[in-house]
Amino acid sequence: MKPVQGLHHITAVASNPHKNVEFYHHVLGQRLVKKTVNFDDPGTYHLYYGDEVGTPGTIMTYFPWQHMRPGRRGNGETAAMAYTIRPQAMGFWQNWLKKSGISTGERQTRFGQDVLPFTDPDGLPLELITSDDPATLQFWADGPIGASDALQGFHSVTLWLDQVEPTANLLTQQLGYRFIGEEGNRFRYKADGNDIGLFVDILHRPGQPQGQFGAGSIHHIAFRTVDDTEQLEYLQKLRQARVQVTPVQDRQYFHSIYFRSPGGVLFEIATDAPGFPYDEPVAELGTHLKLPSWLEQHRPAIEQRLPEIELKPVAPAIP
After folding, report:
1. 179 CB-near residues (< 8 Å, 6+ apart)
2. Among 121, 180, 181, 224, which one is most buried in terms of CB atoms within 10 A?
3. Which CATH number covers residue 168?
């Protein structure tokens, strides 16, 4: 049983699907690799963004619940997520975001790396963190950002917690993460891999208010496991440690188990297989509304409820 290899995907909530697509697809240069529905709420889209094929470790997903009230950041949630960029791309991103009407915060240094903070249209805190570490992904050549400046998959997520140790123990004892350092009240843990999406940061905020879920909130973070067999081993291991874990859920493009960290953050372990080309050719990813077999009979009603999303031609970025 291998330790977790890093982040598989991150799922958040938006209030407007059109603004969401415009931002992630056209501004951040992430391909819309799958357009489906929330399997538990089929009247809502589930949108997946990533590299050309939706490589695990690049996949940002959204439930665009229209008219949902904004969330409020606080303890007990994943309060920020970060993408990796190459160090030489920082100037490009500062200019590109400004030209795209996106305000950025002041550049910071964290664990020796440059960090550029900003937010998505619903206020979700995002960061760009510079690194020359390996990134095994497939560049989306038809996107708006050139290869040298493009996002290099996930870097990390930041959890806001009242206590560090209980969630840290879950990460290290059950999922194979290693504690690698601290800066102030930030504690960093690294997955047992050498690729993308390796880091989980815990920001220690004792006695601070709890977060309020809403638009701009991260619903859950998912960790990578290779296949069904390995996932079942994690299921058994977590249950032996008295962690309450769901049965395996079929999410069409991966299989999932869910559980909450001691700090209240919703975690998932997802399989790499079968992946997003499972029901669409790579060239057509994200262009069709894909439904699981058990919802296909309801397609007319589902399509009537969903707002139409039209993918406009992608314009190349001008530095």
Report:
1. 168, 172, 187, 188, 189
2. 224
3. 3.10.180.10
